[in-house]
Structures are given as structure tokens and as C-alpha cells.
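Lab meeting, item 3. Inverse folding demo.
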């Protein structure tokens, strides 16, 4: 799709692959690979291509057909137009493979309904991101701010979220499998009607994190869980290992008695919830409530 659109716009201006490559300071072979669909330029290169071919960056979205290309005249290429173009690009409803979006800001809804594989968002400002009906595989979001985001009906498989902030983000009817959340901050995050499977959560921060109707499979919780809640959740191969649970709420959970607690410290309130839910209290040391 992207390659065809580059070729169409290039030919409209009677530019050869070599001439386009020269303007981009790359090889003609690289342009050929794009147009044959063998590789894809990253977002920064796409922006340069849009400038050279006098097109809006939105042209590369799948929501636009190849017949909708609009070549701007020199008179239209004012500084104001260029500023507007940079603010209006939209990559929703697209298929992105091996693209580098690292360091981008203000994405908001611009990737909703997209499929992404092997893409990089390292160190990006993604706060307030809105994703709906996304399939995201093997992407790297490490060291990014994804706080205050809203994710609906999306699939995340084998993605890297190390050292990320997911503060007050909400996941609804979403599937997270095989992801690395090492050192991730889940303060105020909410998971509703979602699946949380085979994820790594070493040294993650859990504070006022809520899980509602969420299924856990092969997950190990550690560290401190403070003012968190698990309601109507299902547990399979779940462990709390060397964890401290304070004011943490457990209610109407399935298979809670199968959860293993290993060298855990728990306050009286959390202990009461677990006991009421018929959890196996082996491996738990009771502590006084903390101020």
C-alpha cells in the first residue's frame, strides 16, 4: 500500500526512482524496495517524501485510496500549509511493519485501528494515546510515557514496555500476552474484561491499580501492591512471590484458592479479603496496617 502510493505520487511528478532517492540522500535501490513492498520508510522519512512530492502526509494512510492523491501547486506550498500538514497526519487504519516512530509526540488517536509489527516507539511521548481494534506485535515502547491512555478491544503480543509509565491508563476488552513490563509504573491503571497472560512484571509499581473481570495466566507478582483491587478475576498459574500487599481488595474471584503466596507480607485487611475468598494462606506473614 505505502509503496504503491509513493510510486503513484512520484510518477505524477515525472520523477524517476533515482531522482527521488537523490533528494532523500539515499540509494535508488532503497526507493525500489519501498515501491515493491520489501521494506518501508520510517515516519520521519515519510514526512520528507511528502514534502518532496507535494502531498499531505495523510495520503499514506489506508483510509485514502490511490486515486485521492492531490499534488499541491507551488502557490499552495506556503509555510502555513506545511505547518498544517505536520499537525494533520494520521496513521490510523494502517499496516505498519519495521517502522521507527521513536521520539514522536502527540499521537493521541493517530494509530487507532492499525496493525503494527516490529515497530519502535522508544522514548516516545504517548500520553493520552487512544487505541481501538489494534493488533500490536513485537513492538518496542521502552522508556515511553503512555499515561492517561485508553486501549479498547486490542491485542498486544510480545511487546517491550520496560521502564514505561502507564499511570491512569485503561485497558478494556484487551489481550496482553508475552509482554515485558519490567520497571513499569501501573499507578492508577485499570484493566477491565481483559486477559493478562505470560507477562513479565519485575519491579513494576502497583498503586491503586484495579483489575475487573480480568483473567490472569502464568503471572508472578512481586514488590508492593498498595490499595489495589481484584474483582471478578480468574487466576491460573499465578504467584505472589516476596510481595507485600497492603489494603488490597479481593472479591468474587474465580480459582483464588489456586493462587500461591510465597514469602509474602500482608496486612490485616487484605488477609481478611483473602480468607473470605478461601485463598490458600500458606506462605503469608501477617503485618500491621501501615500508616
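The presenter then showed the designed sequence:
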Amino acid at each position: 500500500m505505502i509503496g504503491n502510493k509513493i510510486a503513484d505520487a512520484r510518477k505524477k511528478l515525472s520523477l524517476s526512482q533515482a531522482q527521488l532517492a537523490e533528494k532523500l540522500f539515499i540509494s535508488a535501490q532503497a526507493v525500489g524496495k519501498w515501491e515493491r513492498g520489501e521494506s518501508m520508510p520510517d515516519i520521519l522519512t515519510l514526512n520528507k517524501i511528502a514534502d518532496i512530492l507535494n502531498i499531505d502526509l495523510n495520503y499514506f494512510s489506508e483510509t485514502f485510496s490511490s486515486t485521492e492523491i492531490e499534488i499541491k501547486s507551488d502557490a499552495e506550498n506556503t509555510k502555513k500549509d506545511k505547518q498544517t500538514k505536520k499537525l494533520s497526519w494520521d496513521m490510523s487504519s494502517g499496516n505498519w511493519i519495521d517502522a521507527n516512530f521513536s521520539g514522536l509526540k502527540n499521537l493521541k488517536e493517530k494509530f487507532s485501528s492499525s496493525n503494527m509489527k516490529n515497530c519502535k516507539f522508544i522514548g516516545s511521548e504517548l500520553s493520552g494515546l487512544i487505541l481501538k481494534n489494534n493488533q500490536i506485535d513485537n513492538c518496542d515502547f521502552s522508556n515511553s510515557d503512555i499515561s492517561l491512555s485508553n486501549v479498547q478491544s486490542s491485542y498486544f503480543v510480545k511487546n517491550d514496555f520496560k521502564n514505561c509509565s502507564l499511570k491512569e491508563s485503561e485497558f478494556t476488552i484487551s489481550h496482553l500476552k508475552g509482554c515485558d513490563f519490567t520497571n513499569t509504573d501501573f499507578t492508577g491503571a485499570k484493566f477491565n474484561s481483559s486477559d493478562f497472560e505470560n507477562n513479565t512484571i519485575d519491579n513494576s509499581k502497583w498503586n491503586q491499580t484495579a483489575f475487573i473481570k480480568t483473567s490472569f495466566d502464568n503471572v508472578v507478582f512481586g514488590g508492593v501492591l498498595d490499595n489495589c483491587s481484584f474483582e471478578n478475576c480468574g487466576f491460573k498459574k499465578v504467584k505472589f512471590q516476596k510481595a507485600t500487599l497492603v489494603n488490597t481488595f479481593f472479591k468474587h474471584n474465580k480459582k483464588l484458592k489456586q493462587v500461591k503466596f510465597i514469602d509474602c507480607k500482608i496486612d490485616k485487611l487484605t488477609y481478611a479479603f483473602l480468607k473470605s475468598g478461601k485463598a490458600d494462606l500458606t506462605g503469608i506473614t501477617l503485618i500491621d496496617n501501615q500508616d
